[in-house]
Amino acid sequence: MREKNKADNPSSKSFMDYVRSINPVYYYLLFSLFAVVLLVHMFTGQWINTPNTYNSFALQAKSWLEGRLDLGENYSYLEIAEYNGKYFISFPPFVSYVLLPFAIIFGERTPDNLIAVICYLVAAVYAVKLFRKIRGTYNNAFIFAFLLLGASNVIFCSVNGWVWLIAQNFAFTLSLMSIYYATCGKLGLSLSFLACAVGCRPFQIVYIPLLLVIYFCGTNTKNFSFVKFVKEKWTCAIAPFLIGLSYMILNYMRFDNVFEFGHNYLPEFVEAENGQFSFRYALQNLPSLFRLPAKADNGALVFPSFNGVAVWLVSPIVITFIIYFVYSIVKRKKLEEELTPSFKKRNSIVRILLPCLMILHIFFIISHKTMGGWHWGNRYINDVLPFMFYGLLLFLPKKESLYKFNIPLCVYGACINVLGAVITYNNWSF
Of 14, 256, 322, 324, whose CB is crowded by the most CB atoms within 10 A? Predict the structure, then answer.
């Protein structure tokens, strides 16, 4: 009788029972991605326990704990904003929020590399969860989750806690989480995680309309009433509002402007004729999205180390998305014949809305004075990939035979990004 009661009561399950109940795809993916990270660490020396030299967010968290908003001194090797004779971190603050408890224990030597890798692996969990939620199965989840995380330029931004990279790492994971919770009908959580992502990469805010469409179509609401929605769901806006308000208060207290987080006060932008953002930059930076590597005298390809290379070369998920997106338009009726009216409506809206939002996002990105400076790949475009992944899952063809071409893309993507990261971090030249 005791054994029967134990089996009937889920809360009495042991930890090992819970571990065994988890679908193996999570383990395969997590171990595979950790192996990718380990390869980069082995050849660069950037181990999980290696101190982070570019630890701006930890310095900021430590300063807050000491009762001041400025750093107290300048750090010439970091991007520091100078305003009214004081020195401030010039990045949106959310990463420092996360590091606050770690700064209490470790001071400015927070375990940033470890935190970055954990964040990367959390993204893997949510990539699989999102696949399962949208496709209704775990079949082929590994291929597409690995294509997103293990075979893309995301690798370069996920192996350490450098200030320029960990914010993108956090924004990537938080964006995936916001999409997942929107598909689950949890609007408050979805908008809250997107608000956190905005505190890492502000342009993520453009995807609010997409999250609302995902939520509304998922709830099967036939007779939508805006007034009724506000009355029933206004509490979903409280947490995102408070998160956003915290950014504004912090910005105002530091720079006397609720929308200024510090980048405009970096020397390179103060001295720039067109400032930090300009339409003129967009025309200059657009070719970097398509730029091919040069050819060396010995025939080898030389990839640029500054401001980006063709995005599909380092993130082949772009190729997959374009192919499936076009296929979904051509085979629209066949793909949607088994969907409910609500999901058909969702697909029709997303098919138009998602490309528009991604184009808008990319336009904002290329309007920046630089395209990421020194780095491997085209890292700014990584911010778009979580939403591209959502669209890819939505428009997957029914024929699983059409998934197989992604296997060589996974192999290619993993190889080029591991090699590229190792070469770039080691400053090797050929």
Answer: 324
* Per-residue model confidence as pLDDT tens digits over 42-93: 999 999 999 999 999 999 999 999 999 999 999 988 999 999 999 999 999 9
Q: Is 338 exposed, middle or buried (0-12, 13-18, 19+ CB in 10 A)?
A: exposed
CA–CA separation, 166 and 160 (whole Å): 7
Distance CA 417, CA 8 (A): 48
Predicted pLDDT of residue 11: 58
Q: Which of 282, 317, 314 minimizes the C-alpha distance to 387?
A: 317
CA 366 vs. chain centroid, Å, equals 17
User: How far is the C-alpha of 379 from the C-alpha of 62, rounded, in Å?
Assistant: 28
Hey, what long-range contacts does 192-199 have (CB within 8 A, 24 or more apart)? 192/239, 192/240, 192/243, 194/240, 195/239, 195/240, 195/243, 195/244, 196/94, 196/170, 196/243, 197/94, 197/170, 197/171, 198/92, 198/244, 198/247, 199/92, 199/93, 199/94, 199/97, 199/243, 199/247
Reading the block at residue 9, the tokens are 């009561």
- The structure tokens listed for 302 are 């030389």
